[in-house]
Structure prediction request, 305 residues.
Amino acid sequence: MKECFSGVIGAAACLFPVFCGADQQEMTAETRLPSQFSTAKSEGEPPQWRYLLHLPEGYDKAEKPWPMIFYLHGRSIRGNDLDRVKRYGPPAFLDKKPHFPFVVIAPQLPDHSWPSSSLLKLLDEVTGKYKVDRDRIYLTGVSMGGGGAWYLAAAGPERFAALAPLCGYGGTSLAKKLTKLPIWAFHGDADDIVPLEPHQKLVDAVNKAGGNARLTVIPGGDHGNIIFPTYKRDDLYQWMLSQKRGREKAEMPVEKASAGKYVVKKGDTLWKIGKSHGVTVNQLKTANRLDSNVIKPGRELVIPD
Prediction:
């Protein structure tokens, strides 16, 4: 990936830093977030954004614009060393995947929380500078970056084609602004840093408001161990590429259930799912760490053998 220094206005100067491998230990050592899960709107706005840039192989020769991923990192990556941004998420593998078919922008936050207004200005700059298809801009982020992605999407829902936050959070008041944006969220059910429940409530609020969102809950997933596997999923990027800005109504993200898994549909009950798969309700509850018989549409269940 190229390392770029960019003001909100003006050109970016690029260089090629030495690749830095992923650091799982630091990734999982993020500070516990406050119970309010607040994201400031104005704090932490840098006078100049520093960001990593990935341009797909063949970018210069292609006349068509490219889809773009806008990625926000987690709390532990804040600072002024851009190599840190490569520790997890898409920047961790892009130096080894030149054919990855997206322009990728990964800014680094110096301090505080992700500021939506300044990020939208950065988005204006990079979409004006690079050959980006403005109808296919996909927003994603991890932990504090997952929360930042929810708030950024709500600040400019018309700017994005889809949202895919990992172990994120946000107030349910965001939901009414996101009813036309396709959303596929991910969270581990063993996350003790950013709890699952607020993320589930936000996804549910989007659907209740008339939108279409789903949350893939990863059994046994904690705050760190879901990140690398999720960003290695081919179906995540296929889903992104199938989304385009400006549709009248967001389409529910559809995942092909792999063997041993089932995505809950509207009207499903544990009894109904268990009967169709030859397992009991108690077996389903144990395999998925469920405390009650209530299940929400969009949740992925593990089907025990």
